[in-house]
Design a protein that fits this description.
alpha+beta; binds magnesium ion; binds 2'-deoxyadenosine-5'-diphosphate; 39% helix; globular; single chain
């Protein structure tokens, strides 16, 4: 049986401006991922320095941060089997024009940094990023009547 994991997703300002929140949320719902946390977040300069620390020496760092602060973002924690890699698969590659058709970025966007969505890329990143944006009491453990179909016996 695969591991049940939690992963952190942010819907970026372009998703909010383009009214694509429902479309994106719907894709994760249809997959069977469980939404265990969700809220608006106004990202600060400090949060973005941490979140994009791996890009701090890039020429586009300042404009990336400015883009991410244009509006609030929608933060969520999704749970499911292999949720970290499964969500990344549904999101697609960083450059929407190189992403596979059928992914959120390929189907709905054309450019960086306006690629709609952030998703954690490893177990370590998911752990750090969930803690960066959510307090423990904002993450909910609850039963759904569909759990037995989605998370039941199987491989
Ligand atoms: P990902 O978001 O797929 O995890 P990343 O962590 O390498 O990709 O980069 C974070 C974000 O930075 C990415 O979603 C969009 C932006 N970005 C990456 N490369 C860029 C570039 N060459 N020019 C402008 N923005 C870029
Ligand atoms: Mg990344």
């Amino acid at each position: 049986m695969a591991d049940k994991q939690k992963t952190l997703v942010l819907l970026k300002p372009d998703a909010l401006q383009r009214d694509l929140l429902g479309e994106i949320v719907g894709r994760f719902e249809r997959k069977g991922l469980k939404f265990v946390a969700m809220k608006f977040i106004r990202l600060s300069d400090e949060m973005l320095d941490e979140h994009y620390a791996h890009l701090s020496d890039k020429p586009f760092f300042a404009s990336l941060k400015a883009f991410m602060m244009q509006t609030p973002v929608v933060g969520m924690v999704l749970e499911g089997y292999d949720a970290i890699s499964e969500v990344r698969k549904i999101v697609g590659s960083t450059n929407p024009r190189e992403a596979d058709a059928g992914t959120i970025r390929a189907d709905l966007s054309m450019n960086v940094p306006s690629n709609l969505i952030h998703a954690s890329d490893s177990v370590e990143a998911a752990d750090t990023e969930i803690k960066r944006f959510f307090r423990e009491e904002e993450i909910f453990d609850y039963e759904k009547i569909t759990d037995r179909y989605i998370f039941g016996e199987g491989i």
